[in-house]
Every structure is written in structure tokens, then in C-alpha cells.
Amino acid sequence: MTTRVAIVGGTGKLGGVITSVVEAEPDYVVHATLSSRDDIALIDGADLVVDASTPAVSVDVVRATVERGINILVGTSGWSSERIALVRPLVDAAGTGAVFIPNFSLGSVIGSALAAAAAPFFPSVEIVEAHRDSKVDSPSGTAVHTAEMIAAARTAQGPVLAPHVDQRARGQQVASVPVHSLRRPGVVARQEVILSGAGESLSIVHDTVEAAAAYAPGIRLALRHAVGARGVVVGLDSFLDIGIRSPGTAPSA
Questions:
Q1: Measured at the alpha carbon of residue 164, what is the angle toward residues 205 and 154, in degrees to the nearest 5?
Q2: Ramachandran area for residue 249 (φ above 0: left; ψ -120 to 50: alpha; else beta)
Q3: Would you call 39 exposed, middle or buried from its count of C-beta atoms within 10 A (0-12, 13-18, 19+)?
Q4: What are 184-231's pLDDT values in tens digits?
């Protein structure tokens, strides 16, 4: 059986990578490719919608898709736990599935999981992330997701130590974790989680060097699970046996 996939934001960088993956898979076909300005009705008839649009329009794409009873795979950045909570009742009421993937890179997902596993053992945790200068949102969705995983892993210990966060140069706090964002040319994506304790520190670094090669395996994995998902699923780690699950995830079918 062929799965018909509509890709919103398919004309963008991530959307182009997703389109190439879908076209290369024998059991999938591109049903429609939409820009962020196209009529959302073009998704009608699809078995799955993939959202790679922009943070400003993504919530409307998700709502329109769920209202049509179609499952959606969201790769757009900017979906924090609070924002996902706003659409969760719609997904549950419709009986559909919404899969939110902050990062399709397997290495990035594993790096975030390692940081969450280490977080209870260090009182101080900060994140430094860098992306291309054309990225419109900060902090990155990956950094937000990592910070939320760290906070969930530290439930017993409480918030991380973050002195002087009233100063703007100390970054933006996400789930108590200071996040520092760099936007510059010559970089695809990089995240460093720095965990510090008395007399020592641990850094967990992930670099994306070539987006298409890095994201393709994760996109294929997410596509397979998103078609039959039910409820809200957050993070590629939900489909990997790495021992650390994203907070706020409902099991997929």
C-alpha cells in the first residue's frame, strides 16, 4: 500500500530533504508540495502530512491537518512543551496522531539523551547552540527539547543552578537551563551541553556537517511511525531504544 504524503514547507531547506527522502522510498509518494503561503486545502486526500514550514504558521498547519483527521509529522522548530500542550486536546479528540521531531539527526537525539542521563549528577547545566544565520527562531527547537529533557531528568534534584540569569548575556532560561544561541554563516547545526560540578565539567557536543545525509535516516524512521501514530509523540527518541524518553509523549501505535 502506498502512503500519500503532503509536505508543507516543501520548498524550504528541510522540506527539500524530506521531499527527496519520500521520493526515494518505494512505499511513499508525494501527494502535494506546499509553500507556507499555499492553500492548506491542498493536503486533502493525503494519508500523512509533514510540516516543515515556519514557527509562525506551523500551529495552523497542525490544526488544519488534525481537523481533517489526517496524521501529521512536525519537523518545524519552535514547538515547546507548552505549545504542544495547546494542540494535544485537538489530537486526542480527533483520534489522530501528531509526531513532533525537534531534530531528525540520530546523533543529535542520542546526544540529548546522554545529556539528560548525566544531568542529575551535575548541579550546573548550560546549552550553547549554533545554527546558520538564516534560521529565524532562537533558541533552536533542539535546544528547547534538550533543556526540557534535562529538567524532566532532574525532577528529584530540582532546577539547575543558574546564577545571574537576570543579566541578558546569561542567555534565555528554558526549564531552568540557560541556553545561548549563535547565528552565523558557515555552520549547519551544533549543540554543546556543558554540565559542571565541583572541580570538573562534562561537555556533550553534536555537530551536523551535511544536513541531507544526517537527517535522512531519522526522516525515514519518523515517516514509518507517524503514519500509524495515535496521540502526541515527541522526539525521535520515542522510536529508539536508548533508555531516555522525551517528556510529554504518548505511546505510538
A1: 50
A2: beta
A3: exposed
A4: 999 999 999 999 999 999 999 999 999 999 999 999 999 999 999 999
135 is catalytic: yes
End-to-end CA distance of the chain: 18
Which secondary-structure segment (H or E) carries 204? strand 200-208
Domains by residue range for the chain, with CATH: 3-104+211-239 (3.40.50.720), 106-208 (3.30.360.10)
Which tens digits make up the pLDDT trace of 97-106? 999 999 999 9
User: Active site residue: 13, 31, 135, 164, which one?
Assistant: 135
Q: Of the residues 31, 131, 206, 225, which is catalytic?
A: 131
Beta partners for residue 7, in sequence order:
33, 50
pTM of the predicted protein model? 0.88
Band the pLDDT of 119: cuts 50, 70, 90.
very high
